[in-house]
Amino acid sequence: MRLHTLFSVLFGCYGLVSGRVFSRNFQLHEARDAAPSGFVLSGPADSDATIRLRIALVQNNVDGLVDALYSVSDPTSESYGQHLSRDEVASFVAPASESTSAVQAWLNENGLNADVLSPGGDWLGVDVPSSTANDLLSANFSVFTHEQTGLQTIRTLAYSIPAELTAHIDFVHPTTTFPSGTGHAPVFVSSTSTSTSPVQRSDNTSAVCGSGNMPVTPWCLQYIYNIPSDPANSTSNGIAVTAYGGAIPQESDLQRFLTEYRPDMSNSTTFTFQSVNGGNSTSNNSQLNVEANLDVQYAIGLATGVPVTFLSVGGEFDDALLDTANYLLSLESPPPVVATSYGDNENAISQKLAYNLCNAYAQLGARGVSVIFASGDGGVSGNKNSECTTFVPTFPSGCPYVTSVGATTLLPNEQAAAFSSGGFSNYWPQPSYQSAAVSAFLTQLGGNSSGLYNASGRAFPDVAAYGTLYDIYNSRAALEVSGTSAAVPTVASIVALLNDRLLTAGRATLGWLNPWLYGAASGAFASVTAGNNLACSGGTTGFYATSGWDPITGLGTPDFDKLLTAAGL
């Protein structure tokens, strides 16, 4: 800390000598002791290397935004379903005029002009050489290399801002948040279980789906969750499937998938492609495209007739999450369901950035959008961090304004998939909508795993669906894949089909789901009482599924007909 303070003073003096305008009164804003595990310092960043700085201004009324979100999302509220417009939502997060003026003046004094990146004006962006970024933020931007993958990134372990701007600037990105060195999409793994007490089904699931670890198809999922196959009717409905890292679905694979598994649909049914921030439009990387093919094939194959938009978002993952949210918020009518199969460990993202992203999801929820994320595929180790001793929550699943989806395995008697991530956030407290359900679980848990998780944190996942051995087509070949990423398009499709019934009846879309899920809709889920997600301490610690809510499968697996009734239809 002393070295950083000295570094700040030296840069303040440099500003005077060079004749450029810098504040001499820098104040440390964010810092970390060291780079994340796996990253090593390779050396200083090239002075001419361009950094896209994103400056988050202090939002003027986040509490008002959250109050409005609950008001339009809680079925017991008189304002339920009265979702806000783009401008109404933007007014809650728009910075005070003095904040915008002060920050723009600071940038202009340094010869910089920023772009406005968000509808509310709370995000500014400016491209600068790393040398300018160092001067501007009294920082030391350097190149860090991930030893396992060779991934290189430019980051700083600390940065400061002028003291007079601390009331106006929330944080600056990218600075102390590092990209993941291991990727973000869930790994496609199969699951085995030795549990002897699964939930029993008294139906013909085995005849339709097979039993045990059998490949899963759309008609199997339609059968076990009562998902209708008749086409949707509303023209204002839709699902946005987001993708990162260059993954692209192949239309030829989708055509083969529909021909084999949905012969009642036209095999020319396709998706709308949308590039955000330089997202790929083509990709020849077969392994990379698996995730995109899985998500699109099951979104189209289950949400019959619902328009699907595929968002290919460029840039590093954390940047891409910001760009995705701001793009969707800029639309006059964003798709009512947004499905994402990607995530990261919560502790890999700075708390300020995580809070800001979570506020963006609150904005989408207030506008009537259901934001759905996979819980992750590392059990209680988060994003596949097998060396953990304490449990690792994932992001964005820990954000209370998204719906987190876990996974089950084995038919006909579903049980929790061992890879299904779940637990308790260290960033967000437990929201009131889930307090009763989580309290019941903690009472059953007793003192087991005490000290390994934050019992007062936001608990996840919220719900689950089957997540193992999904049949897909990839590079014209049949493939079976598993993960919470498989469960996401299944849940998203169910929500989209519920929205279709609501819109056809002249009602509003479901929007932010969680108050409804834990309230009126809680009885529409089949509790999963077998399986575990042991993953830390060499795979010996974790949670076990139980009746009611649990941190592997949430409230359980859905039944479309019961959810329809819970929605008042």
Descriptive terms for the model:
15 helices, 569 residues, Rossmann fold, 2 domains, 8-stranded mixed beta sheet, 20% strand, 4-stranded antiparallel beta sheet
Please give the CATH class of the largest domain: Alpha Beta
Percent helix, as a range, is: 25-40%
Total domain modules: 2
Alpha carbon gyration radius: 24 Å
Shape: globular
Q: What is the strand and helix layout of this fold?
A:
Layout: H1 2-18, E1 26-31, E2 39-44, E3 50-57, H2 62-73, H3 86-93, H4 97-109, E4 115-116, E5 123-129, H5 130-137, E6 142-146, E7 152-155, E8 158-162, E9 169-173, H6 205-209, H7 218-225, E10 239-244, H8 251-261, E11 272-276, H9 286-302, E12 308-313, H10 317-330, E13 337-340, E14 344-345, H11 351-366, E15 370-374, E16 394-395, E17 403-409, E18 415-416, E19 423-429, H12 435-445, E20 457-460, E21 463-466, E22 470-474, E23 477-481, H13 484-504, H14 514-518, E24 525-526, E25 557-558, H15 560-566
Parallel strand pairs: 10-12, 10-13, 11-12, 13-15, 15-17, 17-21
Antiparallel strand pairs: 1-8, 2-6, 3-5, 3-9, 4-5, 6-7, 14-16, 17-18, 19-20, 22-23, 24-25
